[in-house]
Amino acid sequence: MKLQKILHNFQKLHPKEIDLSLNRIKELCKKLGDPQDKIKAISVVGTNGKNSTINAMFSILKEANFKCNVYTSPHILKINERFVFNNKELKDDELANLFEEVEDINNNKPITFFEILTASYFYKAAQYPENINIIEAGLFHRFDATNVLKRNLASVICSCSIDHTDWLSKNEKTIEKIVFEKTSALLNSNIIVAKQSTKHTMDCIKRTISQNESRKKFFNDNFRYSFYENDFFYYEDELGRLKLPVPNVPGQFQLDNISAAIATLKSLNLDIKVEHIKKGITKISNLARLQEIKSGKLKDLVKNNKLIVDGTHNEDGARVLNEYLKSLNCKKHVIISMMANKEHEKYISYFKDVSSITTIDLKSQPNSISGKDLKKKFKTMPNVQYQPSIIEAIKSINLKEGDLLLITGSLYGAAEVLSLN
Fold first, then answer.
1. Which of 247, 280, 313 is the last residue of a domain?
2. DSSP E strand stretches across 174-293
3. Residue 169: what pLDDT?
4. Exposed e or buried b for every residue in 245-271, given b needs 16+ CB within 10 A?
5. Are 272 and 310 within one domain?
6. Packing angle between helix 50-63 and helix 254-267, nearest 10 degrees?
7. What is the CATH number of the domain that holds 112?
8. What is the pLDDT of residues 55-82, one digit of tens each?
9. pTM
10. What is the mean pLDDT of residues 376-404?
């Protein structure tokens, strides 16, 4: 109860959920003793693949016996997921005590929810100056609360694509602007650029960071991977070639994220061995990212059929998700709920190889699009129906032996699925 009360208080400190500025976070961090200046950090920016890249790095570092702090957003089931210190999530009472101390120091000054969470993370992270911090940027990066570091070990640029355009003016809803917001303010250290969905996007990134004096590594130019079907793939860079086991997370696109994670850690000269990489990439935890549900209330409804939940919610995410679906030799049924500010038609245009689509309401989010309105946007797709809830949707689908059921469209929707299950 104490934790929930403090979080409720945090949400009342500013009238807006997001207010792009660095003034408030800098002011609070100064009161906290500028803890962000006392840590060793890897910054992770981009649109898609940030969480997967972070978890791949975290898993490898743990195998190499490094202590890590990890800051991600949003959380899926509980806010503790965002606050990992010494390789473990903070418990409720620990998190409440941390928030309470920062709340007192803030003294009711206006600050957004994400900003005070970020300041709290830095405040705690400074207690572990030798730990490696892996920090996910929130919305864009230039005016994101995580962008108050003066130095870092490295910046990782994951796949950039069109998303969150409601925060851009009408004539700026372009990949060029998104790349600028995400990459123009990166620190001078090491920059590792993951595989991008188009050559144009990669070229935009190269132009934007051309004046940055960091040591740079680009996918294809400096590192790459090749995939082989019999349970291994090759990672290759200027230092040689590694034969690695296929990771425990499904989808060949995950090799994009994992190769960027490997390139980042290798660039830091941390004395990470090949065995650490091999073991680490087979133990990656990836909540709500192509996560197979193997037991629980919803799994009981689909019986022996495979049930997957995935938080993909933008066009490029839909593209790589459907590349994975096409690799499966079975019939696929999809349940979708989405937020109102997404490019719904572009998102669904990739779901051409599925047997049915069921739209549902995203009940926990007032800024979501109703399942009925979502169905109208999918009118060009065959076999689209609406159901008001996840359970009713599952019950309405005629699953045959060997069919797959995927629930996707939103991280918030994925959270509802996992909570309900």
1. 280
2. 190-193, 215-218, 223-228, 232-237, 240-245, 291-293
3. 65
4. ebbebbbebbbbbbbbbbbbbbbbeee
5. no
6. 50
7. 3.40.1190.10
8. 999 999 999 999 999 999 999 999 999 9
9. 0.94
10. 94
Range of 18's domain?
Answer: 2-280
- Could you read off the pLDDT of 24-48 as tens digits, one per residue? 999 999 999 999 999 999 999 999 9
pLDDT at 227: 83
- How confident is the model at residue 352, as a pLDDT? 87
Q: Please give the radius of gyration of the chain, using alpha carbons only, rounded to the nearest integer.
A: 21
Q: Is residue 285 part of a domain?
A: no
Least Cα distance to 128 among 84, 93, 96, 97 occurs for 84
Name the one residue in this structure whose structure tokens are 């790095």. 57
Same domain, 313 and 259: no
Distance CA 26, CA 220 (A): 37
- The amino acid present at 192, given as its one-letter code, is I
pLDDT band at residue 282, thresholds of 50, 70 and 90?
Answer: very high
C-alpha pair distances (Å), 386 with each of 144, 313, 361, 411: 37, 19, 9, 20
Long-range contacts of 398-403 (CB under 8 A, 24+ apart): 399/302, 399/303, 399/305, 399/333, 400/331, 401/304, 401/305, 402/305, 402/330, 402/331, 403/305, 403/330, 403/331, 403/332, 403/333, 403/355
Strands, E assignment, 141-269: 154-157, 190-193, 215-218, 223-228, 232-237, 240-245
